[in-house]
Amino acid sequence: MNYNYRIYPSLAQQELMLSWLETCRRLYNRCLRDLKDWMNSRKCLVDRCSIYQEYIMSTDIPFPGYMEQKRQLTQWKKTEPELKAVHSQVTQDVVKRLHNSWETFKHRGQGFPRFKKYGRYQSFLFPQFQKSPIVGNQIKLPMIGLVNINLHREIPTGFRVKGVRVVSRCRGTKWFVVITISADVSVPDTPAYGRAIGVDVGLNYFLATSDGLKITRPKFFVDLQSELKLLQRRASRKCKGSKNWEKAQVKVARLHHKIDNTRKDWQLKVAHSLCDQADSIFVEDIDYRVMAKGFLGKHSLDASFGQFRALLKWVCWKRGKFFATVDHRGTSKQCPDCGAEWDNNLSIRWHTCKECGYSSNRDVASAEVIRNRGIEKYPRTIGEWKPPADKSVSAEASSAVHIGRSVLSGILNLDKCYAGMPNCEVGKPAP
Predict the structure, then answer these.
(1) Closest alpha carbon to 168 in 28, 30, 22, 32
(2) Is residue 398 scored above 80 in pLDDT?
(3) Sign of CA dihedral 410, 412, 416, 421
(4) How would you classify the pairing of strands 196-201 and 280-284?
(5) CA separation, residue 146 to residues 5, 85, 137, 140, 284 (Å)
(6) pTM score of the predicted model
(7) What is the pLDDT of residues 191-235, one digit of tens each?
(8) What does DSSP assign to residue 153?
(9) What phi-psi label fits residue 25: left (phi over 0), alpha (psi between -120 and 50 degrees) or beta?
């Protein structure tokens, strides 16, 4: 489980961490270059020469795997002081990060690791700690020192700190830490139980539930698009690479950060309100990336349906609600009352069944179909479900699990508690 905090390093600490990020980026690209060179050298047969590839590496050279490149890293540090200046476990994690991407590529068959250009490597990891690095309102990072932290929630009792990831945002002007904590507890899966609702999302209404609730879609990006356009125009008129150009780019990045945070904050509140209404929630298994490629792509990306579905799934897990997806095909062309199918187009916003006479809003009718499919696919238990007691877990650690469930995890959801608030309103922690 991950806890996210805002940190406030000094200027010297920021300069040091930025230099570490640049060194990690160069190391990542160097390891990837060795990997691609080894693969390119094997594209041509040994006994012939190709116009595009040549066999330029000896057959005795092994594949540059994870352990092989870790051994090379030890040799590189003897001759390159910039690598030695970075914490050893941080550089080892860079190699591991590359080979995790490589293994993912082999598993999926797509998404070959790419070189990181300047500014695209935005985090580094301290993978292990013997004791908690948090000291009062500060966090102690190896070779960096004590850094002020906004500890807006305490680490739950019974959990230990496993690792700390330092994350840079807004072109190195905002810094966060993602603290990974763990405890020897088991969290049972939640079965389908209690009251069930279906949720249908769209551009006319952000969502409509089977109970008749309709929420209008807020336009986070569109409302600030004119301001973003102005800042981008000003940035384009600056000399690229100058101080004024960098300041203008920071303003653009901060506005994007504000839009992202306000959207996530609103979606989290909607997800909690849905969990207040039902015990089992069903949504469609549609691929929203297809919607983002149409003529309404800007509005689909602004609504961020895929992100909302992921957040809703996480909120249901931490609150003990059941979440599942159902088949999306034909949900808007089927009557929720009798099951008869009808031909329609997007201009028809009211559903009236010719077979049984059922009449309702089109989005609400689709949500009812989603609910019916979910109930058929996942039979519910009778009454209110409660997690079984685990006798092997202490009461202190068990209570810590419920405390930890109230926190959103993941690097993509940083600073959610202060969405859209400037630094002067958030305030720095007391030293």
Answers:
(1) 22
(2) no
(3) positive
(4) parallel
(5) 15, 18, 10, 4, 47
(6) 0.81
(7) 888 889 999 999 889 999 999 899 999 999 999 999 999 999 999
(8) S
(9) alpha
CA distance 13 to 166: 12
Give the pLDDT score at 114. Answer: 95
The domain spans of the chain are 2-182, 196-223+254-386
Q: How far is CA 261 from CA 256, 267, 268, in A?
A: 9, 10, 11
Q: How many other C-beta atoms can be found within 10 angstroms of the C-beta atom of residue 76?
A: 16
Question: What six digits make up the tokens of 330?
Answer: 């034909």
Average pLDDT over residues 115-140: 93
Place of tokens 């070779």: 143
Of the candidates 77, 72, 3, the one whose C-alpha atom is nearest the C-alpha of residue 35 is: 72
pLDDT attached to residue 428: 46
For 252-398, where are the E strands, in sequence order? Answer: 280-284, 322-326, 350-352, 359-361
CB atoms within 10 A of CB 71: 8
How far is residue 214's CA from residue 220's CA, in Å, rounded to a whole number? 18
